[in-house]
Every structure is written in C-alpha cells, then in structure tokens.
C-alpha cells in the first residue's frame, strides 16, 4: 500500500522557558492510502496538536511532515493554505457550514475558493454517497445535525483530497446519528479509497477505524489494528483517560 502521510520525529513545543509545554515528542507514523485511522488519548495528550501538525494547520517545532511525498516543513503560509485547499479535507465537530449558502453551494465552496472547475459526475457521486440527493437546494438550518455533517463530509471530499481529517466529527451528534456518520466515513474509505484520520474520544467511533493510535503525554504509546470498542476502552482506561 502506498503511504499518503508520514510524520518523522515530529515535536511541538508551545511557549518558551519555564512555561514551555511539549505537546508532541518525536512522533513518527506512516498512514497508508485508503486507510481509516483513529487517534485517541487522554485529555491534553496531544491529539489536536497531532492533527494540526499533520494537516498543515500548525508548524512542528522540529521533525518532518510529508503529504503524498510533499514536505510541509519550510512551506510558507500561502503555500500551506493552497495545499490544504487542494489536498486536504476537514470535518469538524461543529460542521462549520455557511448558513446563507445552500447544501450544493456549501459542498462546492472549496472548488470555488480554489478557482477550480467542479467535476459534475464526481459531485453527483458524492452527493449520492452521502445521501443528500434531493436536498441540495436546502440551507443548513433546514437539515438535522446528521445531515449537516453529511454535507460537511461531501464538502471535504469534493476536491478529491489525499487525506480527510476529522476533529471529533461525531462529537455533537446523538448515538444513532453518530453511528450513521461513522458508517459513512467507513464507506468513504472502502468505496472511494479515501484516507481518513480522525481524532475522537469515543471508543465506539474508534472501532470503525482500521487502526487506532494512542497518544499519551505527546507520544504514540500504542497502536491497535481491527480494534473493538471494548479493547479501545480498556486501553484508554489503562492510560488513565477516565480517571476522575
Ligand atoms: N496554543 C497553545 N499554547 C500553549 N499550550 C498549548 C496550546 N495548545 C495546546 N497546548 C498544550 O499542549 C498539550 C496538548 O494539547 P492538545 O490540545 O493537543 O491535547 P488533546 O489531546 O487534543 O486534548 P483534549 O482531548 O483535551 O482536546 C496540552 O498540555 C495543552 O495544554
């Protein structure tokens, strides 16, 4: 399998001197194309920092991040913005849709921002896949939370990115709706060959992934393949994630 994302000895230190916080400590990991990876760990273990560094939203203090063979370190903000627009998709907890735009306009927004032409056949395929055919003229407020997240997933896919990053994508959804969204992400990986990397607190959400990476104190301390939610919860308990 081809590698799509690679981190080599990535460290991130916030602040300076006595107040400095090492959020990531020499993290190295390779994410293969067409895989679904969940990132878990106790609060403050570095999950958001990992996601931000891997997605070019933040710059590591040291180490290397490669996306599809392109080295991100050393890129200026303009090039990073361009790279994020063209090669990365994002799905957030809070959906982050534009309320004044229709479903279709929200989905195609990344293409318009990039000044790129929308591939009609691809658009139809993703709208169908996320189950929004017939609802593309609505505005976000006319949709349920689960449907809004489906719009966000379609928007993340429209540019055919190399990686879709999810930051607690099911965090704002009820249990049943969250399952539907997780099944959709799984289908995006299995049916479209997309690569998905998702930060989550939820062991059930993590169990939809092929691999779970466990972070503790800025380091990857374990990885689990074909995880069950029970195994993930047990590992998280041993990391002290649920301590009062
Ligand atoms: N901008 C910042 N300035 C200073 N310290 C920061 C900053 N962002 C994060 N940190 C610190 O870095 C460490 C890792 O934070 P991070 O947000 O990556 O953890 P997390 O695992 O995502 O946490 P949570 O599950 O609570 O969201 C924490 O100690 C945090 O306080």
From TrEMBL:
The keyword Transport belongs to this UniProt entry's keyword annotation: yes
Record's GO cellular component terms: membrane protein complex; plasma membrane
InterPro entries associated with the record: AAA+_ATPase, ABC_transporter-like_ATP-bd, ABC_transporter-like_CS, ABC_transpr_LolD-like, MacB-like_ATP-bd, P-loop_NTPase
Keywords annotated in UniProt: ATP-binding, Nucleotide-binding, Transport
ABC transporter domain sequence ranges: 5-242
GO terms for MF: ATP binding; ATP hydrolysis activity; transmembrane transporter activity
Pfam family name, one: ABC_tran
Name of the protein described by the UniProt record: Putative ABC transport system ATP-binding protein
């Amino acid at each position: 399998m081809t590698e799509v994302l690679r981190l080599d000895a990535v460290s991130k230190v916030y602040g300076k001197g006595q107040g400095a916080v090492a959020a990531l400590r020499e993290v190295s990991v390779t994410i293969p194309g067409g895989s679904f990876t969940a990132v878990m760990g106790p609060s403050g273990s570095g999950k958001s920092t990992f996601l931000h560094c891997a997605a070019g939203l933040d710059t590591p203090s040291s180490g290397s991040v490669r996306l599809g063979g392109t080295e991100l370190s050393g890129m200026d903000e303009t090039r990073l913005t361009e790279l994020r627009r063209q090669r990365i998709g994002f799905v957030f907890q809070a959906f982050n849709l534009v309320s004044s735009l229709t479903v279709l306009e929200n989905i195609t927004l990344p293409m318009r921002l990039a000044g790129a032409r929308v591939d009609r056949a691809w658009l139809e395929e993703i709208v169908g896949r996320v189950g929004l055919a017939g609802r593309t003229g609505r505005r976000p407020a006319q949709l349920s939370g689960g449907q809004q997240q489906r719009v966000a997933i379609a928007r993340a896919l429209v540019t055919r990115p190399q990686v879709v990053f999810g930051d607690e994508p099911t965090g704002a959804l009820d249990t049943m709706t969250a399952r539907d969204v997780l099944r959709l992400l799984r289908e995006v990986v299995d049916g479209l060959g997309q690569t998905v990397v998702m930060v989550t607190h939820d062991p059930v959400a993590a169990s939809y992934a092929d691999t779970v990476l466990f972070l503790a104190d800025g380091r990857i301390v374990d990885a689990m393949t074909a995880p069950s939610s029970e195994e993930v919860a047990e590992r998280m308990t041993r990391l002290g994630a649920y301590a009062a």
